[in-house]
Specification:
Elements lengths: L2 E5 L4 H6 L2 H32 L5 H9 L10 H14 L4 E5 L5 H17 L2 H15 L1 E9 L8 E7 L4 E3 L14 E9 H7 L4 H5 L32 E5 L2 H4 L7 E20 L5 E4 L2 H10 L4 E17 L2 E7 L11 E5 L1 E2 L6 H4 E2 L6 H22 L3 E3 L6 H10 L15 E3 L7 H18 L15 H12 L3 H20 L1 H4 L2 H8 L1 H6 L12 H12 L5 E5 L4 H16 L6 H6 L6 H27 L15
Helix pairs in contact: 4-6, 12-14, 15-21, 18-20
């Protein structure tokens, strides 16, 4: 192979050694890897346990060598399914609530937008599997990305489920919301050359030069072509010694199936930005440079003040094979300057000494009872097998060689006939009876599952003779009491995601797109008639978007409380009040009835009630009208 080396003013090793960003990435990645190493090992075992991989390879081989059974009776998975099913059955969407009545219309606008994003991005569906990851190994990650397939200008917000071990957050972070404390995080993935070229199209020639998946840019510079020197990290190789190959085009795709480790380095970069302050109103307007701020202030006349502030900005760099492929500001800036990664931790102990103890799932505490169950089952089966074929003992000359071989093959089958030599001893070994200790051991393991997990049919309200919905609700509350911390963390995760979506609404929606989502009917009918007598107009929607961009709103994000369990509990309580004679409006009861055509039933019921009221009013009017006296006899008759 003929290669032609092109040398730049300084060699590659000298430049990459002095590259501050590359050094920062390598040092922090090494530190963060050692911090999470022990947790990842235990978490992977937890995950495998939940999915049924509950024996080590050494244990399986030992049992196989001893001709012992190796059984797996997965009792963890049904417990996970109960908790996961409860979460999905009672899944509530993210909801925007007003702080005061004056914010009601604005909060409804934001709520409709977030509901649309939820539907388009399948957020509730992704949240279910995020929850599962937390149950399995303790931690799950959801990443927000922009997709430009349908909207090439503004894009659509999508959510991607990252692996539990794929995202590694700053070890110094001690807050559940990583935006409150973390300075950086890494997302790692392995991609082929074709995928890398799709992500970084301006770096195709550099990517073609990757040879070995390591952090040595010199070793991976063999197939590089010199790029323009005026490019930044978006299109600039971090290499000064490159080579070309005559057959580069024919060999560029030979290693396309080989995967290379991509280190996405998300970090807060503290930068100085400038604000023009209206002294009279106190309203700030942000500018990236001092010159832009001063120029704007000069056009506004007196009463303007320029101030400088150091603020955090979110940046992301990507390094592959020791080469930085990009270093750019986050797509969500300036509306959102946090990490677009959201984690759910099932059982979190922030004050624990290490990450292994700090982050756990439901599986961790159930592994020992599961081991006990599997070993007891396997041992009991082994005992039954030995009872069926307990073995034979006899003199060496009791049987011929052919007879010995036949006894080995047929000795465990019923009705076997054995012929032995006279005077020689041959008898069957009497098997031991069932081991009571082994049976008790298995029963104890079953009881441990209930004690450790606190999940069993009795506590889940599955009892016959349930008297009322209130009783069902109390049993369910008792059952999930041990799971409150898990759902508390999950609810907090959803609130963090909701606040993120709220802040990036102006990035995804312009006025026209937002108007299509909320719909003309709502803009005309569902707003405060005192504040908007003619309904909302395009200018109002534009003002709402600007309020979000300026962070000048007074709403808060919660999880909607209209889940299936609460709705059923409320429905049964309303029915009981109706039976007791309380004046409960029937349409209110229908509101809590979970049937597909509930709204249709409600409308028909209201129409019937209105018709009945009108008929009663007409009857009352007829009764209240004065009766005309009948004409007297012999009086004047009409002509």
């Amino acid at each position: 192979m003929n290669e032609q080396e092109i040398k730049a003013p300084q060699n590659t090793q000298d430049q990459t050694k002095d590259d501050d960003l590359r050094t920062e990435i390598l040092e922090r990645y090494k530190s963060i890897g050692s911090f999470y190493e022990d947790w990842e090992e235990v978490a992977k075992e937890d995950y495998n346990f939940a999915l049924g991989e509950q024996w080590t390879a050494e244990e399986r081989q030992t049992l196989k060598d001893e001709s012992r059974p190796c059984l797996t009776f997965n009792r963890i998975r049904p417990i996970i399914n109960i908790i996961s099913g409860y979460q999905r059955e009672n899944q509530s969407r993210i909801k925007v609530n007003p702080e005061g009545q004056e914010d009601k219309t604005f909060s409804e606008f934001c709520d409709k937008i977030i509901s649309a994003v939820d539907k388009w991005g399948k957020l509730n569906y992704k949240l279910g599997y995020l929850f599962d990851d937390g149950l399995y190994c303790g931690k799950g990650w959801l990443e927000a990305i922009f997709c430009y397939d349908k909207d090439p200008v503004r894009g659509e917000l999508k959510f991607v489920l990252d692996g539990p071990y794929q995202v590694k957050v700053d070890p110094s972070c001690k807050e559940y919301d990583i935006n409150d404390d973390a300075e950086y995080l890494f997302k790692v993935s392995r991609l082929t050359k074709s995928k890398l070229k799709a992500l970084y199209p301006k770096k195709k020639r550099i990517i073609d030069g990757f040879i070995t998946d390591n952090d040595d840019p010199v070793e991976n510079g063999g197939g590089l072509l010199k790029e323009g020197a005026d490019d930044d990290y978006e299109n600039k190789p971090n290499i000064t010694t490159v080579t070309t190959r005559e057959d580069d085009e024919t060999e560029s795709d030979l290693e396309q199936d080989e995967k290379f480790l991509v280190k996405e380095y998300w970090r807060k970069k503290y930068v100085e930005r400038y604000y023009v302050i209206d002294i009279e109103t106190g309203e700030p307007k942000r500018f990236d440079t001092k010159g832009e701020a001063e120029q704007f202030a000069g056009t506004q006349g007196a009463g303007m003040k320029v101030i400088a502030r150091t603020i955090p900005e979110m940046w992301v760099a990507a390094m592959v094979c020791g080469i930085i492929l990009q270093d750019v500001i986050s797509l969500f800036e300036p509306n959102y300057n946090g990490f677009p990664f959201f984690r759910f931790i099932a059982d979190w102990a922030p004050s624990a000494e290490n990450e292994t103890l700090r982050t756990q799932g439901v599986v961790r505490a159930l592994k020992d009872p599961q081991r006990e169950k599997n070993k007891a089952k396997s041992q009991n089966l082994h005992i039954l097998n030995t009872q069926a074929n307990s073995g034979w003992v006899g003199d060496d000359n009791a049987l011929s060689e052919a007879g010995k071989k036949k006894l080995e093959e047929m000795g465990s089958k019923p009705g076997i006939t054995v012929w032995k030599k006279p005077g020689a001893e041959l008898r069957e070994i009497l098997p031991k009876g069932p081991n009571a200790g082994m049976i008790q051991r298995e029963q104890a393991a079953d009881e441990e599952f209930k004690q450790v997990s606190a999940i069993n049919p009795d506590l889940m309200g599955m009892q016959e003779g349930t008297a009322s919905g209130k009783a069902i609700g109390l049993r369910i509350k008792q059952a999930v009491m041990s799971l409150v911390r898990i759902f508390y963390n999950y609810r907090y995760t959803k609130e963090i995601i909701g606040n993120f979506i709220l802040q990036v609404i102006p990035v995804m929606f312009d006025t026209q797109k937002a108007m299509k989502v909320v719909g003309p009917d709502w803009m005309m009918k569902s707003v405060d008639p005192m504040k908007y007598p003619q309904g909302l107009a395009e200018g109002h929607i534009q003002a709402f978007l600007q309020m979000i961009s300026d962070n000048k709103y007074d709403v808060f994000i919660t999880e909607s409380d209209q889940n299936a369990t609460l709705r059923y509990e409320t429905f049964t309580q309303l029915v009981e009040l109706l039976k007791a004679g309380m004046p409960i409006p029937p349409d209110l009861v229908i509101d809590y009835l979970d049937i597909p055509n509930a709204e249709e039933i409600k409308q028909k019921m209201l129409a019937q009630m209105q018709m009945q009221q009108q008929m009663e009013q007409q009857a009352m009017m007829m009764k209240s009208m004065p009766k005309q006296a009948p004409p007297k006899e012999g009086g004047d008759k009409p002509a």
